[in-house]
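Consider the following assembly input.
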Amino acid sequence: MKRIHLNGFKIAGVGHTAIGLWRHPDNQAWRYKTLEYWIETAKTLEAGKFDSLFMADFSGIADVYGGNADAAFREAIHLPLNDPMLAISAMAAATSHLGFGLTVATTYEQPYSFARRMTTLDHLTNGRIGWNIVTSAVGSAARNLGYDHQVPHDERYAMADEFMDVVYKLWEGSWQDDAVVMDRERNVFIEPRKVHALQHEGKYYRVLDAFMCEPSPQRTPALFQAGASDKGKAFAARHAEAVFLVNPNVPGLRRTVDEIRQLTAQAGRDPRAVKIMAGISVIVAPTDKEAQEKAADQMRFISLTGTLARQASLMQLDFSKMDLDRPLEYIETDGIRSAMERFTRNDPERTWTPRQVAETMSRSAGGITIIGSPATVADQMEELLERADLDGFNINDHMPLRTLPDFVELVVPELQQRGRVWRAYEGSTLRESITGQPGPRLDARHYGAGFRKP
Amino acid sequence: MKRIHLNGFKIAGVGHTAIGLWRHPDNQAWRYKTLEYWIETAKTLEAGKFDSLFMADFSGIADVYGGNADAAFREAIHLPLNDPMLAISAMAAATSHLGFGLTVATTYEQPYSFARRMTTLDHLTNGRIGWNIVTSAVGSAARNLGYDHQVPHDERYAMADEFMDVVYKLWEGSWQDDAVVMDRERNVFIEPRKVHALQHEGKYYRVLDAFMCEPSPQRTPALFQAGASDKGKAFAARHAEAVFLVNPNVPGLRRTVDEIRQLTAQAGRDPRAVKIMAGISVIVAPTDKEAQEKAADQMRFISLTGTLARQASLMQLDFSKMDLDRPLEYIETDGIRSAMERFTRNDPERTWTPRQVAETMSRSAGGITIIGSPATVADQMEELLERADLDGFNINDHMPLRTLPDFVELVVPELQQRGRVWRAYEGSTLRESITGQPGPRLDARHYGAGFRKP
């Protein structure tokens, strides 16, 4: 029986996928500012034997809709938004096995400082850190982070390719395993000849010296990837150990899964080495009827305008200037083809209007929405797993401090009984949870392992 | 009776000030990689009613001595070095009043991302974050963080001036206090007209949009400054709420204190509004004799070569190429005048050789070293406070998990009995602890308060 990998999916802010749901009287998303909120969330996920808490992030403001940020502020679309990295050590201190996946865009980082932050977290968590590698299509990020214009999609991926080489050199190549000797007699803490300067001078990055950090348990964090564009899939095939997909259309989802497995094999890796997780939302109650009532009670708060404004930012298309009832043709915009494809190409027999897109999205609390009793939810998760050839799920935390505890209390025991969710963590690092293989380090056949020193 | 402000002084690594001391059999600095180490340290400081844990940091490798990094690796000089920001939330969860000061160089940060990180920490700690503003003279940083050459000292301060304006706009000016309304009826989480875009286009930084984070308890973190160059002192007079000085020469220390108070008054602020802390090391035991024995047991591990190599990096002068016994003339190097001044100008009647500098430094565990019984240590701290007109101390943690517990167990009760250390925190934020004034926000007369929206 194939194990189902579970991950919680959140942002360090209020409105994530189910825009408008903050108005539900029981919604506690506004407590994102407190440590108690994060510690409670982490403990819940560990009780449910989740692989990780997977943190989304956005580098800029959703200001495409109407050409300004008013809707984003009013409807709390990815706003307010704190940095997701900073609550991790508090959550790590309250847990022992739960991993933490962080979304960070390469485009706006210095690889040297970024690598140091990830290594520090990997040390402090004892090897429980993952990185969701993105390049960020948000125009607002460019306007606030030092670029005159948004970096074009293909160039962002060229930058990301070089960025990856630099961080592999830092994480895998700079310090040998036995560099730290702590030899008191000889007064040698670190053996200088076992630490290597990078001397990296590329097109986008220049890093000459050795890394400042000693190797952490995983060295390279567990690598996630979430882009489903052609460049994104090729990038995933080379780098990702887990891929996160959001697609409400199951045949479309399956097509992307197949492509990624094929590309992974072409890249010389085991096509099953990449674990594929789909984004879902779950509304569960003891009976199907109660679950449907609970769903109705929640979904009535989802805002159509807010959903449109969020999609406008994700697709970088201003829906406020478009006829909402005119079918969308295939639209080639910079880097967001894949988002559009979900609606226009995955189901070739139908075309979609912007209103239909928004209505479909607003009937979901994020990704494919599953509503029902524990048995119904487990059935549907199993069916989805098989139909789309998935390895697991990222479960959207649409009602913080309620959605995930409900899932852990009601669905996890059902899935455990079916042999689908493990009863105890088998490894101690996030990489071991994700890959199911022993050992905290990158597989020897992984591209990043090529940067190791003999 | 003037209260003495206490702060712990550390790096997120092994060798900080007392190079070589890692060889002491009881030295636990190597445990810096674990959360337990940080949580234990924070609990100790809070038990001693310290204002803060003050974290030093270095953006690059100490590779001046001998023209390479061998000594830095061998003797663990600021190496290995993790990012100090990432253990804070774990420490904050284990404490309730202790503040956390972070050294971050403006030169290598994007102000928008940096401001977001600090605001996030200020939220999660409930207003307990401070920032030690530096510009970083370490050449290695430039070579790894995107610059072709080290940015010259005066230009670094010009960049820092603009950087400060940008972060004040983000922290003080972008979101009004009442921007977050959470009005469920009107579907308004944030009132758009109460959030202001920066439209900042300066010489070094371009930040056009509004901030992504809602205001944190302190908004601007408590501001520390540590540079004692002329530019540094002027910068402190404008921005700093606390200044941290290291000078083994007490009359020299006093001279710098007087200058800073005078410049602060000239900047239109209360000259006492800037709290001045000096770096000290304390070795305490129940009796003077035991303390002297303990000091001898520790100081024998301090390495002369390691101390020279560390000074070489701090001063950016390669002592390995100099005659160790030829007196140093006044040496004008970029931005490190002040470090040299400690030895060449503070005591105008003597000149110093590199060997004398290193020997003096190696007789200290960091800053002015005080050795004795609790009463002796308290006497000397009080005397130093008066002679140099200080407000408090940064106490170097030269023997981690031993130095600070000893101080808290033996010296703090003595100082409390003398009315010099408070028995309970009076405010809840770091700013309140540092300034002694009620209220978590910047004083209305502070330069940064000028960026507030009416």
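The first strand of chain B starts at residue 5 and ends at 10. Ask yourself how this observation constrains the way the partners meet.
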